[in-house]
Design a protein that fits this description.
This protein is α/β, with parallel strands linked by helices and 206 residues long. It has helices at 45-53, 93-103, 113-119, 135-148, 165-180; strands at residues 5-16, 19-30, 34-38, 60-67, 78-81, 153-157, 184-188, 198-201. It contains 5 helices and 8 strands, in the order E-E-E-H-E-E-H-H-H-E-H-E-E.
Length: 206
């Protein structure tokens, strides 16, 4: 990733079910940075990520990507990994990741689902139906698409949930590599990420 980019948020307001989740939210994140979004349950951490990804509308404000691929929309340049793992139980581990690679437009010759599974410690389980995976293995399968299909922006909702210590180290390493390569990360988290981060704390005054 060589094209510098910056995500700029100004005066953002989010309303869900008639309630102000947050209002007048201002921040920016640039290539090579990690922003940790913290705050109590219900403060809008997940809503912020879903809003940036284009899944929910915002009431007021602006959201702009400076730099990046001008022919692509913001959602087309990001990965969103929510706290619920998008895994189809009837497909094998490899078939699940291959589906995401095709759906997200992985480039032929640059997308290697098997290699991505190897990186997250699931390579030997490629032929196993995903129904037999543990919660931690399902989480690692969801995270594998971050490296199977290259996109500069990662939106991660509690990325280390259900992971043991070894898997957390693997995820931290993947995140550090992404930042080193010029990507940017926004992660909603209750736990330290093990990286140098800036913090955006959401709460009653946002």
């Amino acid at each position: 990733m060589t094209e510098p980019l910056q995500l700029v948020v100004k005066g953002l307001r989010c309303v869900r079910g008639g309630r102000n989740v947050f209002r007048t939210l201002d921040f920016s994140v640039s290539s090579g940075e990690t922003l940790a979004v913290t705050g109590p349950n219900g403060s809008g951490k997940s809503s912020l990520l879903r809003l940036i990804a284009g899944f929910i509308p915002f009431e007021r404000g602006s959201l702009a990507l400076v730099g990046g691929a001008t022919e692509l929309t913001l959602p087309e340049q990001l990965h969103f990994v929510g706290h619920r793992d998008a895994v189809k139980p009837s497909l094998t581990v490899l078939e699940n990741l291959a589906f995401w690679a095709a759906f997200l437009g992985g480039e032929p010759g640059r997308c290697d689902p098997q290699a991505a599974l190897d990186r997250v410690g699931l390579g030997t389980l490629a032929a196993l139906p995903a129904a037999f995976l543990s919660a931690g293995q399902r989480r690692r399968l969801s995270l594998a698409r971050l490296i199977a299909i290259r996109r500069p922006i990662w939106l991660l909702d509690e990325p280390t949930t259900a992971l043991d210590d070894a898997a957390r180290v693997t995820v931290t390493t993947l995140m550090a590599e992404h930042i080193h390569d010029g990507g940017l990360i926004i992660a909603a988290t209750h736990q330290p990420l093990g990286l140098d981060t800036r913090e955006l704390r959401l709460g009653s005054k946002t």
